[in-house]
Design brief:
Blueprint (H helix, E strand, L loop, with lengths): L16 E5 L3 H7 L4 H21 L4 E8 L7 H23 L3 E6 L7 H13 L6 E9 L1 H15 L5 H7 L10 E4 L18 E4 L9 H13 L8 H9 L1
Helix pairs in contact: 1-2, 2-3, 3-4, 5-6
């Protein structure tokens, strides 16, 4: 499939991995006097559209924060609505977007979800396992601190000496590049336990828009902003300029 281009952005300046904190679904629905479940449904539709657009403009990996461990403390009727949405639409939508050549990976503790939900998302992983080159990570029952603890515990079980590289390989995103850009919608300005280890050098972009109204053009705008930033990774401007000229 031919890639789309973003005005003023060279293909080499497009982030290879984007993380998206999809915040504001419930507030978006409440503002329209609709139930929160309506906002979550619109959020899933927008998520699929954004994934497709991200791949079209040259992004290789997208990680979406769909359900955190903290979200599991929400009222049961809201969680039931989310689970119903996953049961009805998740597998079909993931197969559709992964057909563009992206492999699905679920991040988080599936055991925290209802058993049938866990089985469904694992089936979606299996049915997209043949795809290579791009990746979609969906964080469900996910918390970054718990992820880091799981990785460290696994290293201890193996009797391994922890290094940055070995810990990274044991995280849920092991084998994937760290995110270059993390986007959060919904006016909040924090990471909320999302990819804390992996985001060490990610550029952060915050939008006041609620997630259902965060358009493809808004994603392009975030990528444009990313392309204008200088990523120093601890180096000076002069060192970065020298490296760019080599």
């Amino acid at each position: 499939m031919k890639k789309n281009t973003i005005n003023g952005v060279e293909p080499t300046s497009v982030p290879k991995h984007i993380g998206i904190i999809m915040d504001g679904n419930g507030r978006w629905a409440k503002k329209r006097l609709m139930p929160r479940s309506f906002g979550h449904r619109k959020g899933m539709e927008r998520m699929i559209g954004l994934l497709e657009h991200a791949f079209d403009v040259g992004v290789d990996y997208v990680t979406v924060y769909a359900l955190s461990t903290e979200n599991l403390k929400r009222p049961q009727d809201e969680l039931d609505g989310l689970y119903a949405l996953i049961r009805k639409h998740f597998l079909e939508n993931m197969k559709k977007v992964c057909a563009r050549g992206a492999r699905l990976k679920i991040l988080g503790e599936i055991s925290l979800l209802p058993p049938d939900i866990g089985a469904l998302v694992k089936k979606a992983e299996e049915e997209t396992s043949a795809y290579t080159g791009k990746g979609i990570n969906v964080a469900l029952g996910y918390g970054s601190r718990a992820e880091i603890v799981r990785a460290a515990t696994e290293a201890m079980k193996r009797g391994e000496t922890l290094t940055e590289e070995s810990l990274s390989s044991l995280l849920d995103t092991g084998g994937q590049p760290d995110p270059d850009l993390i986007i959060r919608t919904g006016k909040e300005v924090r990471l909320s336990n999302f990819l804390l280890w992996q985001a060490a050098y990610a550029e952060l972009y915050f939008s006041d828009k609620m997630f259902p109204e965060f358009s493809d053009a808004d994603l392009d705008k975030a990528i444009e902003e990313f392309s204008r930033r200088t990523r120093r990774f601890g180096k000076t401007d002069e060192q970065c300029s020298t490296a760019d000229g080599e």
